[in-house]
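Show me a record, fold above all:
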Amino acid sequence: MSELRHVLAQTYLSKCSVEKSFANQIEHQKLTGGDPTNFWRRANFLRIQANGQSQRDILKIFGRALKTTLGLKLSNCGGDGDFIYLDDILFSGSRVGGDLEQWIAADAPPRATVHILVMAIHKFGCWQTGRRLREAARAAGKEIDVRIWRALALENRKAYRDSSDVLWPTTIPAQVTEYVSAQHPPFVPRQPNGSSGLFTSEEGRQVLEQTFLIAGMRIRSACKNPSPILRPLGFGPFGVGFGSLIVTYRNYPNNAPLALWWGDPDAAPPHPFSKWRPLVPRKTYGDFDNLEF
């Protein structure tokens, strides 16, 4: 708990910090070309998120900041300028990639610049998103320049796993050996004493990695046919899970270790959710229907 508290003190994004980050982007010289008022007045804000409500929330936050900073209303913006896709965090990039892939194919003009504005990115997901959208533009026969802007970048590329900013175990405990041996491609462990500054020490980092890895396997065992992406350290396409340590005031991502968010103590006894009490229960897409931001 001490190590987790230390990490979350750095990775928890409060509503105040989100508001400040997007307010700073409004007058970002490189983004706006040195003329923020003209840039945002002509900008086209995309409202195309297929799942979740994070974009709706961020648009409201950004709109308030835009009104305070430049006296502009979102409803009065739009024209021959660039396109803006707002969201909170880019993890794997699957959501933003899916949204913009469809937009490029169906609604994007023949030539456009799209700015993706988020609080934080994970570098592998950022790379994947860029590649996916370039391919989508080529397939549609369009020239789409995609630029991603963020306040925080977290390392999670395989080539840089030793200095990664996600949970990436150095060793596999006995309880997880069978699961890992069935992975294709095979899991490649991290070498200790990398350069990430999120943890108190290598020892503290390994406490989190080993504890959450074992707990995640216990959670998977409660499910008869768990999805392949339901990995011990969080939803992910490979290895033992994504291992993200970022959480926002809105929600806990499913890319974080299962032990932190999976489960429901109020579920009926036969249901697998009843087997685990999460530290921070996760809101699913349906849970946001009755929320007001």
